[in-house]
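Raw record, unedited: Peptidase
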Amino acid sequence: MKALIVAPDDTALQWQRAPLAADDYQRLLTAVRQLESPGLAARLSNYIGMPVEKALASLPETWVKPVTRLTQEALGKALDAALLTMPAGAVPRPAPKLSHKLLAGLSGAVGGSFGIASLAVELPVSATLMLRAIAATAHEHGEDLDDPRVRLACLEVFALGGSSRSDDNAEIGYYAVRAFLSKTLEESAKHIVKKGLAKEGAPALVRFMSAVAQRFSVQVSQKLAVQSLPLLGAASGATVNVIFMDHFQKTAQAHFTLRRLERIYGRGRIQAAYRQAAPTIQ
């Protein structure tokens, strides 16, 4: 992998940058709408006709604690399979949509019957499929996947979600999440450049993975709770998985749209425009 290039101070360049073009401003609004609208819990609640909190309350206590551990293990396997071992210069190709549908159908059919056991098998596979699709989205938006920061930014998508208006308290603003993860992301990328892909001796990478997994596990728990409801049949369980995967693919589109706009106009300007637009999004 190529060496990291330190970007110049963005604030010093703000006055040199052109105002946002109308098309780019519309792209920003679309991204804000996706990232600040109610997240996965609201979509699942609308589908099953009841609050996700009620479904979570019915989740067996013995299933709750292992979810974060299983989520972190799944992300580690997905990162290895989908990104870290990808050759330099490779262009990721997301799995065909049929694979997503087959996976959703299979896991949805067995999810309610086998619970946490099915999650341990399903989640690494679905996370890998999603991460490949996320990497393809990053490439489409002009990201350099040879840069380890970009590869880790793909994983960062799993930590992003909707606003807290009707979602879990763990949901916080888009730029707040990125700021929270930025230090460990940079330190992890530097470790990968210097020492390769080994996670041993990389405390920053462990912290980064843990932080992403902690936020992602909230949505994994929501999916598991809904999918395990007795009222859901196999077909409905498959639909839950489709909603889950679609949520993160749309989040990836919004995330890399904003990163592309930041490269054009500067992060400070896009962040300010985002914060100005966010309160107007219904």
